[in-house]
Amino acid sequence: MAQYTTTQFKEHFLTLGLNLKITWLNTQLENMKNKNNLSFDEIVGNLFHKMLISDLGVISLGLLPQNCELLNEKQLEKRTILQVNRMINIGTKHKKKEKETKHRCLKFLLTDGIQEMSGFEYHRIPTIKIDDDNNIPGFKVVVTNAEIRHGHFLLSQNNCKKLGGYVQSLKDLRMNQQQL
């Protein structure tokens, strides 16, 4: 693994849409030191898996434009990995806001690790179901070419792809709220 530098991994993740902190990368690479002869792609795969189960607020320096909540009629052209901290169905009554319905409009609270921004399901994203056990708070999505209106992403299956993952603290918080 000595033949690869932290900078090479940082640059690779920038092309994927994530601006990782060097300290997090160094820690993860140090933890992999005992795994000899890993290829670059194998290390990237391990780092990607760790990223999926990490809080972007801890590991990311963000990629969204500054003050993105003020943008209107702009397009996020850069590929950007975002974390879904919360998701509700605003297209239904309050009692069903966390249930899957035929007619839905999902609202997402998203973060790049630095800024929070909301997004709306402009057209249905079939890989994301609100009551699916795989949509644990903190799951990651990659957003490309999303339109921004009045500070909100307009999301569809054409510009938002689910990557998976979770953040344990958000998962625990959600479980505590459901028990109330």
Automatic annotation (TrEMBL):
InterPro entries registered for this protein in UniProt: RMI1_N_C_sf, RMI1_OB
Domain of life: Eukaryota
RecQ mediated genome instability protein 1 OB-fold domain ranges (all copies): 59-175
A Pfam family reported for this protein in Swiss-Prot or TrEMBL: RMI1_N_C
Family matches, as Gene3D superfamilies: RecQ-mediated genome instability protein Rmi1, C-terminal domain
Family membership: Belongs to the RMI1 family.
PANTHER family documented for this protein: RECQ-MEDIATED GENOME INSTABILITY PROTEIN 1, RECQ-MEDIATED GENOME INSTABILITY PROTEIN 1 RMI1
Name listed for the protein in its UniProt record: RecQ-mediated genome instability protein 1
Species this protein is from: Anaeramoeba flamelloides
